[in-house]
Amino acid sequence: MGAKYTKRSEDYSKWYNELIERADLAEHSDVRGCMVIKPYGYAIWEKIKEVLDAKFKETGHDNAYFPLFIPKSYLSKEAEHVEGFAKECAVVTHYRLKNSDNGEVVVDPEAKLEEELIVRPTSETIIWNSFKSWVQSYRDLPLKINQWANVVRWEMRTRLFLRTAEFLWQEGHTAHATKQEAIEEAEQMLHIYADVLEQYMAIPVVRGLKTASERFAGAEETYCIEALMQDGKALQAGTSHFLGQNFAKAFDVKFADKDGALEHVWATSWGVSTRLIGGLLMTHSDDEGLVLPPKLAPIQVAIVPIYKNEDQLNAISEKVAILKKNLSEKGISVKFDDDDNRRPGWKFAEYEAKGVPVRVAIGPRDLENEKAEVARRDTKEKEIVDWSTVDQYIVDLLDEIQENLLTKASDFTQENTTEVNSYDEFKKVLEEKGGFISAHWDGSEETEQKIKEETKATIRCIPLNRKQEAGNCVYSGNPSEGRVLFAKAY
Amino acid sequence: MGAKYTKRSEDYSKWYNELIERADLAEHSDVRGCMVIKPYGYAIWEKIKEVLDAKFKETGHDNAYFPLFIPKSYLSKEAEHVEGFAKECAVVTHYRLKNSDNGEVVVDPEAKLEEELIVRPTSETIIWNSFKSWVQSYRDLPLKINQWANVVRWEMRTRLFLRTAEFLWQEGHTAHATKQEAIEEAEQMLHIYADVLEQYMAIPVVRGLKTASERFAGAEETYCIEALMQDGKALQAGTSHFLGQNFAKAFDVKFADKDGALEHVWATSWGVSTRLIGGLLMTHSDDEGLVLPPKLAPIQVAIVPIYKNEDQLNAISEKVAILKKNLSEKGISVKFDDDDNRRPGWKFAEYEAKGVPVRVAIGPRDLENEKAEVARRDTKEKEIVDWSTVDQYIVDLLDEIQENLLTKASDFTQENTTEVNSYDEFKKVLEEKGGFISAHWDGSEETEQKIKEETKATIRCIPLNRKQEAGNCVYSGNPSEGRVLFAKAY
Question: I want to staple B361 with a disulfide (CB 3.0 to 4.6 A). Which of A34, A468, B373, B453 is the partner?
Fold first, then answer.
């Protein structure tokens, strides 16, 4: 209470960091680039996991678990893959410590590994090495595996949730008999990601393809979902890769078809990570703190009693117990905060900071009048509601908040997606407005690179639903088949 | 079908390895000591996790996530802890690879870490380093955190599930204002573990205390649950530690009590791991494969149609659809295996190998007679059941199997727990019968050590419910306060 926090308009980046601290979501650890995900942040991750895991299982994927360590030589088996990932990895070289002569704990030089182990930055190589013995015939296909795991990429500049050296994620890895089936799988998973973001996280996304230069190392095609944050920068929220036969060839994974002929299998991989939490924060939150969509809020309703003596508290508690029971039966998570050590105003501010969608306050006068004050976090509107209808009111309100957050974010994304037709216009919009810039591009990596160098904007994606529209590249003037989306990005 | 598998009586260890392969639970990876947990094995782990996680949350614990890496210096902060864990850890010394002049991928010598990082063998040190800033006043206590994570201990001799370099586990870490509260927490978690093993895994356990020499490195007291495997060897299935103020002192975690006085907090930690799956396998399985308790079986009922033509299959499928729906509504997982590529006999053998508790077979004659054949995996008994009552029959049968497995394992444990009163008797029972040996011990580490050297039997625990009974140590003849349990152990 009373603490001064940075506003979004003042310093977005500082606001973001303070937001995480105020809501008690995570913190930097003493280990460079690694974060501690605190209980409230982890509870949000658990909600996201639960939704995704159910969708993966519904679509026939099985969870499994593969080693944390990857032999160095595996990384090298797929040429592009090693280029992409060898630069930024944690390397295990020894397997023992010992006491030195002066009593310090040191690495035992005699316990050096023959081959160094890499802490997985992603698991294609170790998984495809297993797939080799799992796949023999067409009957073993499709093989659809998912793994929930921690991965490590040695990032030099880190930000909580958005970019950390260690992060949590899921990685799907599938093997198919045909190219077509693998492409369909990659697309299916992209749409599952998009649906979860829109329907649960209330984050509207653009579904698209990455350009060649932004593809996953080892992929033939990378599908992505891109979301627009409140500061006008884009966030890559998830990717799904069609890997062709690259890993199958690197690890010699073949199957016998119905006629007994041996063929390499076709592959996909796809992943989303704790980065999604960063996207969630930056899409909805405001200067008072977090704003959580009800479907992912660990606490959906906080009830704060206002009382002057124990009799009043008891009377309130009695009534609230029934409400809590009714709501719980509908699957709504309710916290009744009767902690006597904190004043109601302090609690209000805390639940605001934590983004609890609905707050109910009930005092002695409300008791008398059979009313309660119901406040919604997203618009900060308050309503006095009859106690007899308050449970249904809350149920409806949660739905309304969920919907409103998506509408608001969709409107924002639409308002901040600008079609431009010249490079001057491109630069002007980028500088003054930000957001997605829809522009014709000639399809060359050279142009893409030059625009990036000159403006820091990158091609976020070639939207899947873009119009086929002939035009001229805003940069080179060369012919273009359609518009792509540019933006500065996280 | 037809393959010859090793029997338990021939070679228990080989039988165990084959069991895992037959049921397709896990396999060794190419990374020394690390396993791949395959979908069926992982599905069992997910069931175990789900049960435990719910119990942790019910008792007020929050999940969180801490870094994979621990700075080397942290390990050294608690003197006994480093002695216990430094011997067997993976050490990260570099953070980058590069291409060498001859095109190989090598460790970049310029990317050497200033301080080496240890891949967590357990997380007390990194977590207590965080707790330092999380705990200020008595109002922050108790702090009850759990983490689901992978950990690495560089084991030289590994066995799938029982002892692997990397394994999955949960580790609880709590901080309390009083010694008494911390001890109660450690005991509560032990009882939760024991209840989950008995009520869900159908594994009877002895609840006890470890002797000083077997305590967790850094603990004041280690509680444990010990289970007896079918070969008469004991398995430590879970531990819960009262850590005193050791870690609070090492990491300077103090709280202000109600009067403002600063005190170090009191701690516990507790964990169970994928080792539980090893215990599950070795408790119930037989020469035909896995036997799973219904509460943890990924597939509880497998239905196999027997037919000669498509009409018959269609008729069976129609009937089965209703049964499947009825059972699913009761929360029972059913697999209808109408795969046309495999014969019924092959399917029977597979579901036996996978330990599916109930198998239903239905053929044309069963259709006519409105019957089905229901086989239970545990006793291999079959029964012809009226179709009209088959769903309730299966519901009851699953309960009966669950109960039967626990009874059978409890009887086995009781029959293989032998009181001995002399060292000769001790050695004779150990050699000829195995199992738990209940014997008087003088309480000295010297005796414990000598018995271990001479017989390979260790003190598994001092049972919590042991009788206070004066006696004489079977080894030294010195006075003893009560019996302890010895066994050879995994």
Answer: B373
Spatial CA neighbour of A333 closest among A354, A306, A308: A354
Q: Sign of the C-alpha dihedral, residues B174, B176, B180, B184?
A: negative
Q: If you average pLDDT over residues A445-460, what whole number do you get?
A: 98
Are A380 and A446 found together in one domain?
A: no
How deeply is A261 buried, as exposed, middle or buried, from its count of CB atoms within 10 A (0-12, 13-18, 19+)?
exposed
With CA atoms as reference, report the closest residue to B374 among B354, B350, B401.
Answer: B401
Q: Is residue B427 part of a domain?
A: yes
Could you tell me if A70 and A149 are in contact, meaning their C-beta atoms sit under 8 angstroms apart? no
Please indicate, yes or no, whether residues B131 and B65 belong to a single structural domain of this protein.
yes
Q: What is the distance in angstroms between the Cα of B40 and the nearest Cα belonging to chain A? A: 8
Q: Do the domain assignments include residue B409?
A: no
* Residue B243: strand, helix, or coil: strand
Q: How many residues does chain A have?
A: 490
Could you say which residues of chain B have pLDDT below 50?
Answer: 1
Position A100 scores a pLDDT of 83
Q: How many CB pairs under 8 A join A and B?
A: 183
Last residue of a domain, one of B348, B379, B403: B403
Pairing of strands A112-119, B371-376: unpaired
Q: Does B307 share its domain with B218?
A: no
Q: How many CB atoms lie within 10 A of CB A163?
A: 16
Average of per-residue pLDDT values in chain A: 96
Q: What does the pLDDT average to over A331-335? A: 97
Contact A65 B129 (CB under 8 A): no
The answer to whether A139 contacts B69, with C-beta atoms less than 8 Å apart, is no
**Cβ-defined contact of B166 to A68 (cutoff 8 Å):** yes
- Based on its alpha-carbon atoms, the radius of gyration of chain B, rounded to whole angstroms, reads 26
Sign of CA dihedral B123, B125, B129, B131: positive
pTM strictly above 0.95: yes
The pLDDT assigned to A270 comes to 98
- Locate the chain A residue with the closest alpha carbon to B34: A67
pLDDT reported for residue A264: 98
In order of B43, B44, B161, B401, the CA distances from B47 in angstroms are 6, 5, 16, 18
Give me the interface pTM, i.e. the ipTM.
0.97
Q: Which residue among A256, A284, A312 closes a domain?
A: A284
Counting beta carbons within 10 angstroms of the beta carbon of residue B49, is it exposed (0 to 12), middle (13 to 18) or buried (19 or more)?
middle
- Give the CA diameter of chain B: 83
Of B199, B227, B237, B228, nearest in space to B403 by CA: B199
φ/ψ of residue A385, rounded to 5:
-120, 140
